[in-house]
């Protein structure tokens, strides 16, 4: 793994959360995206080398909406950038981690993504990301 790529935060109200984080961080999001396949809106803030992703579920059955219903707003996941997502997925499977998807899928911010089940990582949802070239 190369580095922490971003920290994902689940929010109920996208507009309010974007305004709050713009004020808190002193910068506007550099990107907002609608990811229809995941029924989510996302925005990304960058401070130095750190990125924060805000995620708003758009339907009651989206993963983000279910997360908020169960746990409330807050940190949803930590994403790590990898050189080769396929090789990293195979390595983690060999090490006994449970992956939530068998193949990487297109995520926000021009990335291929795969998630590691929180039960495999002491309760933390881990996202692997690789830049789509």
Briefly, what CATH class? Alpha Beta
Order of helices and strands: EHEEEHEHEEE
| Rg value | 14 Å
CATH topology: 2,3-Dihydroxybiphenyl 1,2-Dioxygenase, domain 1
Q: Strand order of the main beta sheet, please?
A: 2-3-4-1-5-8-7-6
Estimate the strand proportion. Answer: 35-45%
Give the oligomeric state of the chains in this entry, treating copies of one chain as homo and distinct chains as hetero.
single chain
* Total helical segments: 3
Let me know the largest β-sheet: 8 strands, mixed
> How many domains in all?
1
CATH architecture classification name: Roll
First-to-last CA distance: 18 Å
Q: What is the helix content?
A: 10-25%
Low-confidence stretches: none
Helices and strands, with pairings:
Blueprint: E1 3-11, H1 14-25, E2 31-35, E3 40-47, E4 50-57, H2 63-71, E5 74-81, H3 85-94, E6 105-107, E7 111-116, E8 126-131
Parallel strand pairs: 1-4, 5-8
Antiparallel strand pairs: 1-5, 2-3, 3-4, 6-7, 7-8
Protein architecture, described:
It is a single chain. The protein is 23% helix and 40% strand. The chain has 133 residues and is α+β, with helices and mostly antiparallel strands. It has one domain: 2,3-Dihydroxybiphenyl 1,2-Dioxygenase, domain 1 (Roll). An eight-stranded mixed β-sheet has the order 2-3-4-1-5-8-7-6. The model has no long low-confidence stretch (mean pLDDT 95). It holds the Pfam family Glyoxalase_4. This is Methylmalonyl-CoA epimerase. InterPro entries: Glyas_Bleomycin-R_OHBP_Dase (IPR029068), MeMalonyl-CoA_epimerase (IPR017515), MMCE/EMCE_epimerase (IPR051785), VOC_core (IPR037523).
């Amino acid at each position: 793994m190369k580095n922490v790529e971003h920290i994902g935060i689940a929010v109920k109200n996208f507009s309010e959360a974007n305004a709050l984080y713009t004020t808190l961080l002193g910068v506007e999001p550099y990107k907002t995206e609608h990811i229809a396949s995941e029924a989510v809106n996302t925005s990304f803030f960058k401070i130095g080398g750190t990125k924060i992703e805000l995620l708003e579920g758009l339907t009651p059955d989206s993963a983000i909406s279910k997360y908020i219903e169960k746990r409330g707003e807050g940190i949803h996941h930590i994403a790590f950038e990898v050189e080769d997502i396929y090789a990293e997925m195979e390595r983690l499977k060999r090490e006994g981690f449970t992956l939530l998807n068998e193949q990487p899928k297109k995520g926000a911010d021009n990335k291929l993504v795969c998630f590691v089940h929180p039960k495999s990582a002491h309760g933390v949802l881990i996202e692997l990301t690789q830049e789509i070239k």
